[in-house]
Amino acid sequence: MTDTPAFAASIFDMDGLLVDSEPLWHEAEVEILGALGVPLAAGDTRRTKGMFVGEVTRYWFERHPWAGPGPDAVAAEVVDRVGELVVAKGALQPGVHRTLEACRRRGLPLALASSTEYRLIRLVLGHFSLSEEFVVVHSAEDEPYGKPHPGVFLSTAEELGVPAGRCVVWEDAPAGVLAAKAARMACVAVPDPAEADSPAVALADAVLASLEEVDDALFERLVRSHWSDPMAAPGVHRAPGGAQASGPGGSSTLSK
Question: Which residues carry out catalysis?
């Protein structure tokens, strides 16, 4: 097995990547927002995929204002409903355990960085017996902006204590790929087939049809791709106050 010292951690998205929950979010949003008069058609929920749930309900409220509960209250309803649906019929995506084990064999600590609220993250990880897999769990609930802003990934790297440029992000959503690359991280995209041709997905260092494709050759490709990218900054990490400080030889930039 080829060693990959270039990377220091793996950061995973949750919805759509580890758990086949995107259809459940769609179902919950159509059910709850539709009852409030928002005309969500098939595919409309893709516009907000990867955003924090409060951003999603505000997005639709701005375009189709409704009477009754405000966007934050509706967001809470959506999260509750998704939790019910995950327990009732959620499933892990193929290849999840294979991928986690491949990262562990390389000595990479595992983290989760999700746009989902902590209470739903805890429910999902507990339901699928994944709670002990991740040394860091970080939600965009703690960030001023959701994906495609890189904040959730930069904060996760900071919690891990590793430079952002030495992290591998695993994502399914175009917004998540954009966030990972904005953070100067390597990225593996496992997109929904309907989004496989997205220009954002094409920015990933590797694009897979399934996590079942993860193997030693993938990690070798990631090393070649990431370190040949002139925009990759392996020494970058976030400094206090939202700035990014670089490692030896790097420059300092602002993250927000």
Answer: 13, 15
